[in-house]
């Protein structure tokens, strides 16, 4: 009998996420029913959203204690009991953190075979598509404008900054640590970088973005969002992708201040989104991303950790800002 190793979430965290909230378990390999696919997980995507799902229902059902931890992955079809799929196909699906899964075929998205395979989770996956649509369709940057992005060394932020450069903008990244900030400038071509751990963001923005901010791509919320709002130019746009500063730990004492007045007086547009909002533009986005990668304009930073048993610590580390680029776990 083939053993299916799984990571269960045994307790929902009330404060910071820790190893004690997970356990490694074993179960029999599932058997697919009619209309289902038997999948072997290859690469598990790790995202700050994994932690947000533990707080309650979002755009998906909340995670409950005792379940296999939820998460998207690139997986290989081992057996297909549904039309349109065959053994050996690659799919993206919400497999959860486990080696094998049996899922309804309608919930799996067939993926092309590309090298390296990891690009299907990074630049051609949710990270790259989120950056593309959140910046270009929500932020609507124009050549010569200033774009600021938080969590700039993370999976989405690193692509946002590079795409902003490609379309002719001045780019300022906000990240944690001198090493990350130096990397943003030397490797990804950011015009400036602010280390929020070492300096007050509001004051640093006056130097890094002396002409103000036209587009702010927000991955963190909280105090950094507040600091950027006060530096926005007239008719500026704020693309709200996430609020990682508020996912892991106690609720903040206050939200960003000044929003109502700033939105009105500066005529700001502030819009939240998820990548699925733009599924009808997927082909165009992928074509652009592929062309930029091929031309060398878009670099693909990745952070790959081996072994399903290391998935909990990999997520904990991501929430602490340990990663540079898209973090994922290689299962097979």
Describe this structure in words.
With 332 residues, the chain is an alpha/beta fold. The protein has two domains: 3-120 and 303-330, Medium-chain alcohol dehydrogenases, catalytic domain (Quinone Oxidoreductase, Chain A, domain 1), CATH 3.90.180; 126-276, Rossmann fold (3-Layer(aba) Sandwich). The protein has helices spanning 49-52, 126-139, 157-166, 178-186, 201-208, 222-229, 259-265, 282-295, 311-319; strands at 3-9, 22-28, 36-45, 73-80, 90-93, 100-104, 109-111, 146-150, 170-175, 192-195, 213-218, 232-240, 269-272, 302-306, 326-330. Strands 3, 4, 5, 6, 7, 14 and 15 form a seven-stranded mixed beta sheet that branches. Helix 2 crosses helix 8 (282-295). The longest helix is centred in the middle third of the chain and has 14 residues, at 126-139. The radius of gyration is 20 Å and the shape is globular. The two termini are 18 Å apart. The mean pLDDT is 93.
């Amino acid at each position: 009998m083939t053993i299916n190793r799984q990571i269960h979430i045994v307790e929902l965290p009330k404060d910071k996420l820790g190893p004690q909230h997970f356990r490694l378990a074993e179960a029999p390999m599932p058997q697919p029913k009619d209309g289902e696919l038997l999948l072997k997980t290859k690469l598990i995507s790790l995202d700050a959203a994994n932690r947000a799902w533990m707080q309650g229902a979002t755009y998906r059902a909340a995670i409950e204690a005792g379940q296999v931890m939820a998460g998207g992955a690139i997986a290989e079809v081992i057996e297909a009991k549904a039309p349109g799929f065959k053994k050996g196909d690659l799919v993206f699906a919400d497999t959860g953190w486990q080696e094998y899964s049996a899922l309804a075929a309608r919930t799996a998205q067939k993926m092309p075979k590309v090298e390296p395979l990891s690009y299907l989770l990074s630049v051609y996956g949710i990270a790259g598509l989120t950056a593309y649509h959140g910046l270009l369709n929500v932020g609507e940057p124009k050549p010569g404008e200033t774009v600021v992005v938080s969590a700039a060394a993370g999976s989405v932020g690193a692509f946002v900054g590079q795409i902003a450069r490609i379309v002719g903008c001045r780019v300022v990244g906000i990240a944690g640590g001198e090493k990350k900030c130096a990397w943003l400038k030397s490797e990804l071509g950011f015009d400036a970088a602010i280390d929020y751990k070492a300096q007050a963001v509001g004051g640093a923005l006056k130097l890094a973005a002396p002409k103000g901010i036209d587009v702010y791509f927000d991955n963190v919320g909280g105090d950094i969002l507040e600091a950027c709002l006060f530096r926005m130019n007239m008719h500026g746009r704020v693309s709200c992708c996430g609020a990682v500063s508020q996912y892991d730990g106690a609720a903040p004492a206050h939200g960003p201040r000044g929003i109502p007045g700033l939105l009105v007086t500066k005529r700001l547009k502030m819009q939240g989104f998820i990548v699925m909002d733009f599924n009808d533009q997927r082909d165009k986005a992928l074509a652009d991303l592929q062309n930029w990668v091929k031309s060398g304009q878009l670099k693909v930073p990745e952070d790959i950790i081996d072994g399903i048993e290391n998935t909990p610590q990999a997520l904990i580390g991501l929430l602490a800002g340990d990663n540079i680029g898209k973090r994922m776990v290689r299962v097979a």
